[in-house]
Backbone:
């Protein structure tokens, strides 16, 4: 067996090492001036009013829901095709997560399906920019507006993505980014909540024990000053050690995104003739971040299922992963969402055939060629005879 190409490798250079060392030598380790610089950089990139840096993307999402006051008796509409964090944070506030189906092309929350799930208890809608393809924010914003809902974006995959020239983070009331190690840029663990100043200021306080933070004394080092605890908050702030990893990463973000786009384009070109797999759709006006490069297997053209396809690609020296198992299939959520697998047919069908290939700035052309060779090899080896009267696979846009 050939060793698989690494699925991900962090892109950390001397700049990051120097900046972190500078922080360690400075004597100021926790939230401070470097965190403030990273906040302004991300705020401006996202075209948002304000930003608060957090200890993770999960913390940013949790703060968003706490800042809008979501709690027991409230409902928040989201997608099942996401990292557990998106749904967990809703449950953690005591609110009820409500799942709506996704669009078959982008696998992003379908605004019409989300609207059909609105009840008198709904307080927010929480779409996820799956794989970094921007959601239809105009439709979602209109729908949220019609029903008086708060719009919160889970943009863990979508830093730097845009739709019709509008950056992800500029439309919703609140947007959460993740700087986890595998994300578009990293602080090791970390995240950022951007959005409306009133809500971000509440989140900033909630991230710091519920203390009152005045806009002009955020970074005050004055040990004499008392800070009033005005609400029961948590401790979710980013440290300057994390931020000092993030600042050089932010400086490289354009290059990272460009390299991801090149890799995605090269996959599209190399796999265009491999009919056993379906390539990702890019909607007109969308600029994805390519956090993931996804393929979907075409069941009627293959004698093996997606899981075996992924295993065979690895055995052949490429690499692939499955993202995500729908949340209603996780043991904790099975009982909370009985019947979701039939109520969400697009999620159910598409989650069973989606896989992703390595896409990260350090992926070499040679490594990518190995991934392509492995995919083509597995597709041919397990390619099934095409039935004379092809059956339509639900959600398969190719037919
Ligand atoms: C869609 C999505 N939302 C939220 C998160 C949580 O981010 P973090 O790992 O920074 O807490 C992740 C994964 O990391 C994710 O993929």
Residues:
């Amino acid at each position: 067996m050939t060793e698989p190409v690494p699925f991900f490798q962090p892109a950390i250079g001397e700049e990051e090492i120097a900046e972190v060392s500078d922080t360690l030598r400075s004597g100021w380790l926790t939230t401070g001036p470097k965190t403030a610089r990273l906040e302004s950089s991300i705020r401006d990139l996202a075209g948002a009013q304000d930003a608060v840096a957090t200890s993770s993307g999960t913390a940013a999402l949790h703060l968003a829901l706490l800042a809008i006051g979501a709690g027991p008796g409230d409902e928040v509409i989201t997608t099942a095709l996401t990292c557990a964090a998106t749904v967990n944070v809703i449950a953690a506030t005591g609110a009820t997560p409500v799942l709506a189906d996704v669009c078959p092309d982008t696998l992003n929350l379908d605004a019409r399906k989300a609207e059909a799930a609105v009840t008198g208890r709904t307080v927010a809608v929480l779409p996820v920019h799956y794989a970094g393809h921007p959601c239809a924010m105009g439709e979602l914003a209109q729908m949220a507006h019609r029903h008086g809902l708060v719009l919160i974006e889970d943009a863990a995959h979508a830093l730097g993505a845009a739709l019709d020239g509008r950056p992800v983070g500029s439309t919703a009331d609140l947007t959460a980014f993740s700087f986890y190690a595998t994300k578009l840029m990293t602080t090791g663990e970390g995240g950022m909540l951007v959005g409306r100043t009133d809500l971000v200021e509440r989140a900033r306080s909630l991230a710091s024990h519920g203390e009152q933070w005045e806009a002009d004394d955020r970074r005050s080092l004055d040990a004499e000053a008392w800070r009033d605890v005005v609400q029961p908050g948590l401790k979710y702030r980013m440290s300057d050690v994390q931020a000092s990893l993030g600042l050089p990463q932010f400086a490289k973000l354009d290059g990272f995104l460009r390299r991801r786009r090149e890799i995605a384009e090269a996959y599209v070109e190399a796999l265009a003739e491999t009919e056993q797999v379906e390539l990702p759709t890019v909607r007109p006006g969308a600029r994805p971040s390519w956090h993931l490069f996804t393929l979907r297997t075409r069941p009627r053209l293959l004698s093996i299922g997606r899981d075996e396809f992924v295993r065979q690609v690895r055995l052949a020296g490429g690499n692939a992963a499955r993202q995500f198992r729908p949340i209603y299939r996780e043991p904790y959520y099975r009982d909370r969402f009985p019947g979701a697998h039939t109520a969400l047919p697009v999620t159910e069908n598409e989650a069973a055939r989606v896989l992703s290939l390595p896409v990260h700035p350090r992926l070499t052309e040679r490594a990518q060629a190995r991934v392509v060779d492995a995919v083509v090899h597995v597709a041919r080896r397990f390619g099934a005879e095409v039935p004379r009267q092809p059956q339509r696979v639900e959600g398969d846009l190719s037919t």
